[in-house]
Amino acid sequence: MKVDSAGDAGLIICVATSDAEREECCALRYRVYVEEQQRCSTIADHERRLDRSADDASGVFFAARVDGVLVGTVRVHHGATTDIPPFIRRTCMLPETDPLPTVAAIGKLAVDPAHRGNNTVVMLLRACHAWLNADGRATQQLFIVAFDIPKLLVLYRMLGFKPVEPMTSHMSEIGPVVPMVAMIGARRPESVPA
Known about the structure:
Elements: E1 2-5, E2 11-16, H1 19-36, E3 60-66, E4 69-78, H2 86-91, E5 103-111, H3 120-132, E6 141-147, H4 150-158, E7 162-163, E8 170-172, E9 175-183
Parallel strand pairs: 5-6
Antiparallel strand pairs: 1-2, 2-3, 3-4, 4-5, 6-9, 7-9, 8-9
């Protein structure tokens, strides 16, 4: 799948399929989470500067590129094809062991600072929405565990997410977070611009 964004000077979104592409996504996550945001990661590969997690192996990575340069990434899990990561299940109060064939979760969203404030996040999420309902997957709910950063929470609300419970921040192993959900059904959410 490839999504072109005419409004963002050559922004192209595609699924990262090769090991090299996925590693490049992990390197961007490291720059954003570890170096820029100073979020400690005990499982990151600090020598190679890669933000890795056990959930990467079963996730689908999306890559946003401008002129071939990676500027954004997000990881997706769909309950119909892979398991929802335990951290997301626990934080979003989902059943710990039951199959969740109509549920998806996104995580590890990272955008290069030079490309924040434009259409990169919206286009990444649009590509995720398209993938989530392709090939007969009937996705109804999309979960994210968002960092408790006011600007970020406003962005997710504009994109159709709402807190799983009343606006409550939880302390987690990655810092304060707010579990959020978007009800997407088999249609494109009205809140995501076409």
